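Tutorial, part two.
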Amino acid sequence: MTLDEIDRIILDAVQANGRISNADLARKVNLSPAATHARLRRLEREGFIRDYTARLDREKIGYDLLCFIQVSLMVHQFDQVQQFRETVLAMPEVLACYHVTGEFDYLLKVVLRNRADLEQFVVNQLTPLPGVARLHTSLVLSEVKTAERLPIGD
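Running the prediction step on this input gives:
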């Protein structure tokens, strides 16, 4: 399906404010509230909008460490790769997992409370995973930019 200009405006608006009222959204796109609601539901149904969430301040909640962990696997057989992926999916500390090209196979974005938690996570959870050959951890010193908003209008 292709997106028209109204769809793009709707997507941009709900990215900026997931709590925007249907009436405000309708005014923004110059449609009736019913037509706007129907378009929004269609965009949800067709998977353009995955979900609506609240972004929390990790530091205020007590997660002082944000780090990126690069993981190399020894073997790239389907069963081991699948087992690694399923295990990582079940780890609440892992905010994101990317299968990447280059020297490492996976890049994990991980949030932890402190260095002791980092040590426990690396030593007791990641290192023992079958097939893990090598890890490289980078600690985030400061977040210069974090965004989930896609450049819809561009």
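Helices lie at 5-16, 22-29, 33-45, 58-61, 78-89, 115-126. In part three we will examine how such features are distributed along the chain.
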